[in-house]
Structures are given as C-alpha cells and as structure tokens.
Design goal:
The protein is of the alpha+beta class. It has helices spanning about 55-70, 135-140; strands spanning about 1-5, 20-30, 30-40, 45, 50, 80-85, 95-100, 115-120. The longest helix has 13 residues, at about 55-70. The chain starts with a strand and ends with a helix.
C-alpha cells in the first residue's frame, strides 16, 4: 500500500475527489499499538475495513475493531484523526478515515476467519509471523501527538 496524502480536516468534511471506503483504528494500551495479523495478506496492520452501506466511518471503525481484535470502544469514544488517501497495487486510489482509541482494559482475543492474531506492539521489529504494513505504522504515529 502507498500513502498518497493525509488530511487533518474536520470529520464532517471528507475529501470529495474519491469515495470514503474504509476506516482504521490506531488503538493504544500502555504505550503499545494494537496490530492485527490479517490471514490473507499475512502482515501486521491496524484493525479496520470497509464501511457498510448506511454506516458512518466512525461506526465502521468501532465495528471493525470489535470484529477483528475483540476490543470494544463506543463509536463516540473514538478520536477522529484525519483522512488518508491510499493506493494499492491492484486497486484504485481510495480514502479512509483514521481514528484512535485508548484501550484501558484489553479483552482476550480469539482468532477468527480474517485475523489470526493480535499484538500489542511496542515498536521496533515486526511481531513474529509477518511483516509490518508500514503505511499503517506511519499513520498510527500521527495519532501520538
């Protein structure tokens, strides 16, 4: 994935040149970043995914955090960080909403069809089992002001 731009504009002012298609969450606990290992891509990345019809980006972010990592945060408790414009080798350019959250009491994780594991990553080398999605790590760094 390539990061083309990042815009820190109001949440209710998404970019208009491409559709907003996904939401991701940089969740932190005790100074560590939550990463999920996506089975198909085999890499460590931020929890997130597509925005369902009728769903806001904020609602999608909370749902994806729950579905992928078993961590529940009320949508209203998520902090909006900005919009990322990204490109994948086989996809068109698209926009995603980046949110952040503090997890005070992490819940246990159960692997599922999409995610094989989670890691509370402290930085440095990638957790065992796959490479880091460097765009996600960079975006997560933007949430730690």
């Amino acid at each position: 994935m390539r990061l083309l731009a990042f815009a820190t504009v109001p949440e209710d002012s998404p970019p208009s040149d491409h559709e907003l298609t996904y939401a991701i969450v940089a969740a932190h606990h005790d100074g560590r970043l939550l990463l999920v290992r996506e089975r198909t891509r085999g890499c460590w990345e931020l929890p997130g995914g597509g925005i369902d019809p009728g769903e806001t980006a904020r609602e999608a972010a909370a749902r994806e955090l729950w579905e992928e990592a078993d961590q529940w945060v009320e949508p209203s408790a998520l902090r909006f960080e900005g919009f990322a414009r990204t490109a994948l080798p086989d996809h068109l350019t698209r926009y995603g909403a980046l949110f952040s959250a503090e997890i005070t009491d992490p819940a246990p994780f159960t692997p599922n069809e999409e995610i094989s594991g989670i890691s509370w990553w402290a930085g440095g080398d990638a957790p065992a089992g796959g490479p880091l999605q460097t765009v996600d790590v960079y975006l997560a760094g933007l949430t730690r002001r």
